[in-house]
Structure prediction request, 724 residues.
Amino acid sequence: MLKSRVNLGKRSYEIIIGEGILSQLGVTLKRLAIGTDAFIITNKFLKDKYGAKLSRALLKEGFNFHFKIVADSEKSKSIQTASMVISELAKFSKEKKVFIIAFGGGVIGDLSGFVASVYKRGTNYVQIPTTLLAQVDSAIGGKTALDLDLGKNLVGAFYQPRLVFSDVDFLKSLDNKQLASGMSEVIKYAAIKDKKLFSFLEDNSKKIIAKDSKALEKIVASCSKIKAKITSSDERETCGLRTILNFGHTIGHAIEAAGGYCGYNHGQAVSLGMIAAIDLSQRLKLINQKLAVRVENLIKLYGLPSKLKAIPMAKIIKAHYHDKKFSGKENKFVLLSGIGKTRIVRNVSLDLIKESIKKISG
Amino acid sequence: MLKSRVNLGKRSYEIIIGEGILSQLGVTLKRLAIGTDAFIITNKFLKDKYGAKLSRALLKEGFNFHFKIVADSEKSKSIQTASMVISELAKFSKEKKVFIIAFGGGVIGDLSGFVASVYKRGTNYVQIPTTLLAQVDSAIGGKTALDLDLGKNLVGAFYQPRLVFSDVDFLKSLDNKQLASGMSEVIKYAAIKDKKLFSFLEDNSKKIIAKDSKALEKIVASCSKIKAKITSSDERETCGLRTILNFGHTIGHAIEAAGGYCGYNHGQAVSLGMIAAIDLSQRLKLINQKLAVRVENLIKLYGLPSKLKAIPMAKIIKAHYHDKKFSGKENKFVLLSGIGKTRIVRNVSLDLIKESIKKISG
Prediction:
């Protein structure tokens, strides 16, 4: 069992990472004294697969609980679903000391965090992420989110959980595509902040792809530590530190948006975005070709795409341009100046951006 | 023009109070640098009456704006209305630097604050309260709220505005019942914290009821100062200081709930709650009869009820009992130990509570 800590004064919390730790959840929650009645938000697949085990862990320590099933779809990140969940929560919570458990991937984590942030002006909640992407990224840091028709994540709050509880056993039920999607964020952390992790990913791809528990524990712990540290110093993305987490995301988001969110998934789009950002870094002479190739090879090693298919450049540029205008500021790219080292570059010319998108165009 | 300040570090803000200050709104907003495009949430009555003047004040300083009309009803404090407002806000805010103006009474303030708290994980907003109740109470302190079918204010956040701008001219369009409802909270502030204000209210009822500008400015400023001070030291009602604001509200809420929120309005219910709390204070020998009569007389002076009609005691006890169980703690009453002095008393016996409710039963 490994631990990291997000330091935010009274709102500090632990991230606990381990293999087969679910059975110890009850004890951990009891120590936190966050309530006696758990309102568990999850989907049908996860409840069927892990519901009994989760129930046992809670019952053993005398917790009362209720499962609320939502659809396993990005569509669950809607005001409508949140409203339905809140109504059921209000019914359940009468005369109880309720806390919320987000049991699932990014969608469930974002939705549950939002519900927790607004119910009775803030209710305790715990993240139990079940995907690699959620364990290394979305479950940590307190960003909660709902989508609107007009755009993703437009509704939300910064609201920290009381605990992040990452059992790497959950990752064993992920298919290759889901694992790869998470690996894209893992590679991002290594590239921007952790040279040792980068080498570990280069040397242990077989173990990781075979979902070796120790290897998974190692990468989840390393990434959690980075995310915890960055969140501790820049909770609300106001002092720039959190910006480096956007490495690969500027063009990545444009690729996702251009594909109408049904072309490339988030991890794949971020991989392509990282390759474009690496190309930009090379063109701006921040890194040499050898290093650029090293990053590209690592991305390929984990079955992530390095070439765009089916989305014309014009569409990506348009989505990117829209994004830039949306924020009302000049553009801003997180680039690499070495493995584990970043540089923020502003006002990159459209010509250079186009060249880098050409690089990833198949 | 009078000013108070809520001190919360980076989230500090001013409360500006005055007569006919609306024309200076643009200049004040410009100084705050909170955006260029105002999304104004209000109701039809207020837009028809003050929309042109508000528009002029904004146009004069180059602000762009958009009015969003919601129904003038507690029903607007719903997730449904919030969702509709957010969608329109998302459309309006594209490529703009948006901030929100809550232009109205408590319902509009609570709804707008909620929308501001969740749109893009927090958007700047300004409170321009138009009722006495909102100017002295709900617009200050950052409590935002929506209702559920199961209960009032169950959804919300603590999210502070960037400015509270109270023009007492708005109060001139209030009818007697609306003014009295606000006066109930004014009397509460005086009773718990401000002996001088209490005497002022005793000596100047004619002026106040006639809506004399100077008198209104004085009471709004005095109450704002108290609320600002309490909010500054206990933003999230965690260290007990904010509790004293609940004077008259424990039984008051039970009266509102027992009447299905269509019997007594908030101000009337709080008045009855204050008389019951005064009676309890006297029974517990915290104050003498002379002082109790003084508070009761002040309440009557402003046309507020001192006797309950049509709601049987059993119903109130039940609502109160439910409320107590709801919080999962023992009961807790804010009582008076003098004019401007409070005492928190826990575990008051049901018999004593019944005696005090008998006191207000007509």
